[in-house]
Structures are given as C-alpha cells and as structure tokens.
Amino acid sequence: MCNLYSITTNQAAISALFRVVNQYVGNLAPMPGVFPDYKAPIVRTGADGRELALARWGMPSSSKALMDATKKRAEKLQAKGKSVDFKELLRMEPDSGTTNIRNVKSKHWMRWLDPEHRCVVPFNSFSEFNKAEGGDIWFALDESRPLACFAGIWTNRTSVRKVKEGETTNDLYAFLTTEPNTEVFAIHPKAMPVILTTPEEVETWMTAPTEVALKLQRPLPDGVLRIVARGVKEDPAPTAA
After folding, report:
1. CB neighbours of 146 closer than 8 A, spacing ≥ 6?
2. Single pTM value for the model
3. Regions of the chain with pLDDT less than 50
C-alpha cells in the first residue's frame, strides 16, 4: 500500500504536461513527502477544461467500515454507562479516508469511476515500506525523478475527517492500485499504484468509457522503475524542474 509519495515538479510544468487551463492551488510549493489526509495537487476536468486543484488524500471509507467503527465506539461508551445516540454517533464518526483503491467492482467505488470523477495525481516518486530493506523505499521512473501520475478518482464530501475539526467539506482523492511489477514486488508484494506515463494513457483515463479506462489498472512493465532512496520519510532529491 502506497501511503507516501512526493511531488516536487513546479506547477508550471505540471500544468503544461497535463494541459491545465485553470489553477486553484495558489503558489504550489514542492512536497517531498505527501502523507494520508494531506492536501496535494490533482488534475481533474472542470467546466472549462482541465484544472489543477488541491484535495485531501483519502476518499470516503465504505459505509460498512464506518458502521463497524461506530459500533465499537458505541460499545465503549455504553460500557462506561453513557447513553448513545447511535445515528448522531455515526454521522460524526471520524473518517480520514481510504488512500488506495484496488477493488473497482465494489459498489462503493463504482459510483466514482465515470470521467466526471476521474483525476490524475502528479508525482515524482513514491514509497513502499519494508523494514528489512531499510524502511521507506522510494521508487521513481529514473534517478532524475521525472514527472508522472497516478490514475485517481475524486469527490467532494461533507464529513468528519478529524475529531478536532468537526464536520468539514472537502475535495477528496485517492488512486488505484494493482499487482506489483518485479521491482515493487521485491519490496511490497501486495500491490503498487496504477501509474500513467504517456499523454495517451492520461487522455484515456480522463475521458474514455469506464470499461476502457480500467484496462489501465495494470502494473508497469518490469524494469521501468528504479529505487532512488531508502530509509527516509521524505524524498531527498532536489526540487525537480
């Protein structure tokens, strides 16, 4: 599961590569470490074309996951002799979100697979954790960390992300995963992000019918990725152009 990546390419280069016509990110600083529930740039389709926007990493969790978490919390409160309004407890259940999406046949995810909710998530490198190999192992297309993107989905949701924040309304995103190629398998045998590396793949993901777009949910060919850093929480590479 990829829960850490970097995006250090400047926003002008991001906008040029993904043909962005509107930007809603302010002065975008380099992000050598993006963590779950952090805001980071995504490229999505707006009313006037492609737009670069900031969203929080983590799509809404399934209703079952939230129901199970609420039941556990209700049981703990009841064990302390406290009364419980379960409906209100469920409404206010904290949900920091789901960062990686594998089962696209799930009804929970199918609602967001149309082009309106698809996005790409720019990145320069991503990390998979393996304690025996040194901790966070960073992968990129090569040592220069060229700009690429994950195949993602996004939505807008009013929910409780953190208890201290209460109910907030946010743009949210996550990206698809698939079986790992050889390089990632050696570090993390369960999955790797779905990575798009060409303008044609980006166009297909952003615009094609769902059954066509989902054919991109596949690992990169073996030999494409390189390990570029080990054992650090942020990619130590200099800011990419």
Report:
1. 124, 140, 240
2. 0.91
3. 240-241
